[in-house]
Amino acid sequence: MVNIRVAAQTDLPFLREHDSHVAAEELTSVVQRGRVLLAEHNGEAVGWLRWGLFWDEIPFMNMLTVLSSHRSQGTGRALVTYWEKQMNHAGYSRVLTSTLSDESAQNFYRAMGYIDAGVLLLPDESSEIFLRRDLETVPDLPDPHITRE
């Protein structure tokens, strides 16, 4: 069984160890604002979703990571589904995320109903694909607690 919850200050050592894409001070700040979700299996942290607001108004998933030992078991899907449910309940009708064009994550997001919304081209980097999902099209999102088969 995977449990999804909002990360707490006590989760910072795990997050700092595994999330090198954000400065420690910013990570502390987003945890304080409730913008990190943590996935646990048998009480052990196995993944997280970190988000913010694009243009200060559209929820944007900045990071979705599941430890390699727990991938392909529904944990990433559970994190995204829980986040979408939170955003829908908070009154948002759309969410965004992005992934590099050379990453397979784009297939995961498309399978979850995300559609291409644009591309960012930066010098000497792979294209960044932006994806969106309209939440009003998400019917009765399932409970975020999942059982692994």
List keywords for this structure.
single chain; 149 residues; Aminopeptidase; 7-stranded mixed beta sheet; 4 helices; 7 strands; 34% strand; globular
Task: Please describe what this structure looks like.
This protein is of the alpha+beta class and 149 residues long. It has one domain: Aminopeptidase. It has four helices and seven strands; from the N terminus they run βααβββαβαββ. Strands 1-2-3-4-5-7-6 form a seven-stranded mixed β-sheet, covered by helices on one side. A hairpin with a 7-residue loop joins strand 6 and strand 7. The termini are close together.
How is this structure best summarized?
With 149 residues, the protein is α+β, with helices and mostly antiparallel strands. The protein has 4 helices and 7 strands; from the N terminus they run E-H-H-E-E-E-H-E-H-E-E. The longest helix is centred in the middle third of the chain and has 15 residues, at 75-89.
